Amino acid sequence: MGVVVGTSVTAAPAEKKGARAAEEKKDVLSAETLSGLELRSIGPAFMSGRIADFAVNPADPAEYYVAVASGGVWKTVNSGTTWTPIFDNEASYSIGCVTLDPSNPHTVWVGTGENNSQRSVAWGDGVYRSTTAARAGRTWGSSAPSTSA
């Protein structure tokens, strides 16, 4: 029977007769092996994990939007390989739904406030619409009621 020490296995004293004193085995999960991996934000799960809604551009299936319950709205244009947060500058982070206008997929609608409260979200402040054709989801207008007196 061997005794594990670091990344090598050495024979127990009773087993040394006629056997090699130490047998090297490569540690496949060594720090050197994992050194190229870094933690990184790859999309909606990094911010929250609860996906509230999903909208796909029917004219371009590689472009879609994800509404995250407590993490805003994210957009991909390469089938989910990379993601861009597109709702970070708005007043609400709690998202309940996202949809695209069926006659113009460059018009994105976002409904704020999640209907499945998990004690980690806030109520919404209205419905937002982005209509910038070439930059869908980059600028928003709100239908939220005015808070000014």
Distance between the termini: 80 Å
Total separate domains = 2
The major beta sheet can be summarized as: 4 strands, antiparallel
Order of strands across the main sheet: 4-5-6-7
Rounded to the nearest angstrom, the radius of gyration is 26 Å
**Strand count:** 11
The level-1 CATH class of the largest domain: Mainly Beta
Shape: globular
Please report the number of helical segments: 2
Global structural class? mainly beta
CATH topology of the largest domain: Thrombin, subunit H
- Going by CATH, the architecture of the largest domain would be Beta Barrel
Order of helices and strands: EEEHHEEEEEEEE
How much of the sequence lies in strands comes to 25-35%
Low-confidence stretches: 144-149
Share of helical residues: under 10%
Average pLDDT, all residues: 74
Structure keywords:
globular, mainly beta, four-stranded antiparallel β-sheet, Thrombin, subunit H, 2 domains, 149 residues, 5% helix, disordered C terminus
Describe this structure as you would to a colleague.
The structure is a single chain. The chain is mainly beta and 149 residues long. 5% of the residues lie in helices and 34% in strands. The chain has two helices and eleven strands. The strands form three sheets. It has a four-stranded antiparallel β-sheet. Strands 8-9-10-11 form a four-stranded antiparallel β-sheet, with no helix packed on it. The radius of gyration is 26 Å and the shape is globular. The protein starts with a strand and ends in a 7-residue tail after the last strand.
